[in-house]
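Lecture 7 notes: from sequence to structure.
We start with the chain below.
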Amino acid sequence: MQEITVVGCGVMGGSIINALLNANIKVTIVDINKNAAEKFISRGAKYYASLDEAGDNDCILVNLPNHKIASGVLSNANKDRLNGKMLINTTTSSPEEVSAMDQLAKDMGMMHLDAKIENYPGDIGSDKAYLIYSGCRQVFDAARNVLEAIGKAVYLGPDIIGASVIDIAVLDVHFGAIATLAESVAYCIKYKYSVESFIEQAKEILPIMLAGNYRAFSDECSNYTGSFEDASECTLRIETTAMKTILDSMHSAGVKTPCGDSILDLFRKGIESGNSSKNVVAIVNELM
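Predicted structure tokens for the same chain:
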């Protein structure tokens, strides 16, 4: 594929357009703000204010602030002009919104591939960019060179909501890590200990710990029934004791721990439910 239409020229959309132009792919930009597109127009990109004005490229990539705006742009476009075209939607959205977009695409006669971007805009077009896709395999294969110009392209399967489910689940872990990382940095600052040194060690230690977490959740929750076997290590009781010790130390240093407090509360609820001897992953029951 040598040409594509990109709807949205914001921070992420602009990064995508930049990567595509760097890969010598011809880009038609659709955005209500021409000023945002000027730097790409000077590099050869075409510009239009609406989809109905844009050319007849076979593939349309959408990157807009939210589902409401993205679906509005498509639903307000001329259906005959979109019929038979490929849609790649990179807009952040929930599984329900993705399903709604898929139905809209079908109503417009379009082939739909949902995409989720798992990196910051500055990494687009580099080996750090990682995107997951679900939905129409035909679109994924036809646009493969375009997708790989943006970043590593991973196809999850035909279930249209797959990428969205993974995206939201991973982002929940991501933002949880930001919040608890802030608590940990505050703790180091309180003790006048090098934050740089803490970060260096966290990079070494956390992958080891997380590998065990991944293994435990995968082993015990892949065929979830709500029941768990007794654990030989890392029981919920032991982890709860450890968490309380951690929080006691942070509190004595004067650090507020809203995230850590919530974790301890979740652990205690798991114990109250009779899972003290189970692996800590049994806390998933408290969230269902």
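Points to note: The first strand starts at residue 3 and ends at 7. Residues 162-190 form the longest helix (29 residues).
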